[in-house]
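[Q] Does anyone have a clean structure-token version of this?
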Amino acid sequence: MRNFALLLLLIPILGCQRDDLTHPNLTRTDSGWELKLPEGFPQPDIPASNPMHPNKVELGKRLFFEKQLSRTQELSCGTCHQPALAFTGGVAINPGVEDRIGIRNAPTLSNAAYLEAFMFDGGPKNLENQGMLPFDDHNEFDFNLIHATERIREDSTYAGLFENAFGKPLEPKLILMAMAAYERTLLSGNSPYDQYLNSGKTEGLSESALKGLELFESDRLQCSNCHTGLFFTNHNFETNGLYRAGQDSGRMRVTLEESDRGLFKVPTLRNLRYSAPYFHDGRFWTLEEVLDFYSEEGMVHRGDSTRGLHLTEGEKQDLMAFLMSLSDSSFVQDHLKDGTP
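[A] Here you go.
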């Protein structure tokens, strides 16, 4: 009987120290848990203050889809970042509590571990800080993080989950840390374009997509000046000719600098097949509309010069084929199969 009682006392302790778990997106190393990366992807920077761990990731996933975190208990992060849509919202601007409408489209969270700034204005600098914004926003969760923590604390199932993930009781910042850990596992790198790169550029892309890639990288179109690198973004803030007086001021909302008015973070082009509508306000529902805009109106640069790309119909089709090749169906299927809590 005494041994049985001792075992009962040890169970919570053992539960907090489980390092023998497996996770599809994590691997155990001598220095701790690391992300399992798609072929060719570099290891992203993980904050030393929030190292990866399977228990933390699973807790973060549960919290990501937890509607108790919003004031009306009707919304979660997953409401606006849906796995079936490569973690985007599927509408121009998602409604928040009481159907209040915000100002911007919900960007994809695929490969968020590699972002250098978040949101279209670049306000948050890491995923932990970004997680605060829905709580503070009147048009999103409209619920102070402290109050959300108190509500979660009333759910007894969470007590052990936080102990297992962090070795300590629930506190507000741990909610943000757990969700950030989960979001860092949302790695997408198995598109036809990735297969093309990883095959030594011998397979993966159709003839039309190869023509589109050549156009995309050409000096004439200069698409790759902004949409560059493995994630098709230079992480900068640019204007694309959409801003009009009185509209969303973009980067200026953060910096208060007039020179940043109408500038928005260059988004990734990965998973465009799933992430319509497009641009910061979701004004275009199809890539055909996007290409028509750039073809006919073109970019408005900081010097206020304008130029259309004057694309032929054949060039539009080739560019479309290339842009579609950046979409990773396995990423979406894996997260749908994985399910939500």
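[Q] Thanks! Anything notable?
[A] The two ends are 37 Å apart (CA to CA).
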